[in-house]
Amino acid sequence: MTDPRLTELTTRVPSLRLLTELADLIHYGRDWTRRWGPSPLAVALPGSIEEVQAIVQWASERQVALVPSGGRTGLSGGAVAARGELVLSLERMNRVLGFDATDRLLSVEAGVTLQAVHEAARSHGLLYPVDFAARGSCTIGGNIATNAGGIRVIRYGTTREWIGGLTVVAGNGQLLELNRGLLKNSSGYDLRQLMIGSEGTLGVVVGAQLKLTDPAPPAQTMLLALPHMEALMQVFGLFRAQLKLQAFEFFTDMALKHVLAHGAQRAIDADLPYYVVAEYDALDDADEQAALLAFEDGVREGWIADGVIAQSQSQAATLWRLREGITESLAPRKPYKNDIALRIGAMPAFLHEMQALLAREYPRMEVVWFGHIGDGNLHINILPPEDMQLAEFIAHCERVTRLLADTLQRHGGSISAEHGIGLVKRDYLGSTRSAAEIALMRGVRQVFDPSGILNPGKLFE
Ligand code: 2HG
Ligand code: ZN
């Protein structure tokens, strides 16, 4: 350990666990984006709130940039440390602290995984409903920092809905207890909500009080094959009107090709351009009957060409794998990712424009569409041709993303629905937020982090 700043830090916080080996710097210096070479100063693994405060105070005095870090499954570069920052990993602070049965609040440290939250909720006979494929690795602190969404937003909303209280260390080391689990609290600005989605730029989330709810009713899972994109919106409208949806996810034949090549089971014979995994309440025969009627209506209208209803939990898992395995199956190809949001009503016109734009601009590249159509959230992954250099590929994607951002702006959409802005979409923030809004956001950042040490360069420079 040669850097004198680190010697000073360990003198100041003698109990602190600090990693400086190259392998650790690489491991902790990046997230699931693989565009930036990891290059942190070191990795701090505090074990308590007091240690986090001491690190932040020291960093603020010494002007050392910090990158708050959870499971690093993010897709927008929010947890990348490529400029000599100190990674502040919450990994060791991963305890479930307690459960308040009256208020149905689960108190956790920030480094607990989403899966551990699910298990803890289940052990109390309740549900923490935010869910997505990275559940086993992502942590609740990162979920809060990005206002993570996932596959059940259509029913339960995003992370924002499920945070009753937050414990946060602000940029000057001050400890803030925000909202304290209150259901009603009309006492001025809701700083808890400001923290959610702030991507580690306003404070380091060290703990949270999570709201739990009743377990979801028994569900049935259906896989549908659809002949064209219009059918997707039509089937969504039909199912939403006739069933109590828990999830409504789509993917294209291109996504299916990759996920099958990655080991998923086919599960449906039809070879069509669009697929849907729908999950809906199936409490009794009436619910099952309603699902069959909705399916038949869709077939009669020509919107549904084929379908499978899971006959068991394990078959449901097989159907879900087709959707949830997509990101992992694409990862070896290092895709360029877009995560866009629109009002559902704006979707058909936008999709037409986008398909024309992508066919024109990406004739040589595979474009993989999937996502949460019922939330107005599409994931558009672009795969580079095998013979294209990464730099050329990224430059091309950036140019097309500008066109995408312009198109989104015209349709009133957002350049990030649930992954965050981070480094990946920083240059496009202005397509979603007005200049006045960005100026206010900068002002807010300045108030919470006057020395500018918290995740600098993320969200905006
Ligand atoms: C999902 O919905 C995730 O599966 C990842 O948000 C999306 O890989 C992506 O682009
Ligand atoms: Zn998603």
TrEMBL record:
SUPFAM superfamilies: FAD-binding/transporter-associated domain-like, FAD-linked oxidases, C-terminal domain. Belongs to the FAD-binding oxidoreductase/transferase type 4 family. It comes from the Bacteria. Gene3D superfamilies: 3.30.465.10, 3.30.70.2190, 3.30.70.2740, Vanillyl-alcohol Oxidase, Chain A, domain 4. Its cofactor is FAD. It comes from Frateuria flava. The keyword Magnesium does not apply. InterPro entries: FAD-bd_oxidored_4_C, FAD-bd_PCMH, FAD-bd_PCMH-like_sf, FAD-bd_PCMH_sub2, FAD-linked_Oxase-like_C, FAD-oxidored/transferase_4, Oxid_FAD_bind_N, Vanillyl_alc_oxidase_C-sub2. Keywords: FAD, Flavoprotein, Oxidoreductase. PROSITE patterns: FAD_PCMH. This is FAD-binding oxidoreductase. Pfam families: FAD-oxidase_C, FAD_binding_4. Residues 36-215 form the FAD-binding PCMH-type domain.
